[in-house]
Amino acid sequence: MSIIDFPPPAAPIKVLLVDDHPLLRAGLAEAIAGQGDMRVVAEAGDGHEALAAWEASRPDVTIMDLAMPGMCGVEALQSIRARFPAARIVMLTTFGGDAQVRRALEAGACGFLLKSSLRKELVQMIRTVHEGQRYISPEIAQQLASHLGASLLSEREVEVLRCAAAGNANKRIASQLAISEETVKAHMRSILAKLGANDRTHAVTIALKRGIIAL
Q1: pTM to 2 decimal places
Q2: If you placed Cys at 212, which of 29, 148, 189, 207 could pair as Cys (CB 3.0 to 4.6 Å)?
Q3: E strand map for 19-118
């Protein structure tokens, strides 16, 4: 009698969910539970919990919200990958602004998914990322492509623009940032040039749309 050795079944893909909205996590968990090749091994409500949950569960794929109170998604991504460089993390967002996407990708994100696309893209995304590839929603990829080659604002320029968005004049911005008013004007000229904006109001509008700043 011959005995046929069948390969052992593949272990399910372990998924960590990180989002400050329990209902969203519940919806993701329910969708994943319907798949035989993946399972949720842990959940976290913020970036600090995410680091502890990753260390405890060692997931294959982490799905993490970009915008969370306290430690934001990008900061949590950086913290996790600083300790676990092989971590495969996909960021969730409600909009397709390119600036935060680029920042997250530079920090090592394996993908980006719009929350509005979760129903149709979630399962495919998990399998794609688990196989070692990147996954970026088409809408987000289009945003990245439309700003390809564009210069990102420096950290100081972002600070200046954030102050301007709050309605502060140059003199007040200079006082808040402990720099001269002339330096503020120089930063603002650079901001307008980089964003292709006509004035500071236009620059704020563009920056909000691209996710460079948030109100």
Answers
A1: 0.73
A2: 207
A3: 38-44, 61-65, 89-93, 111-114
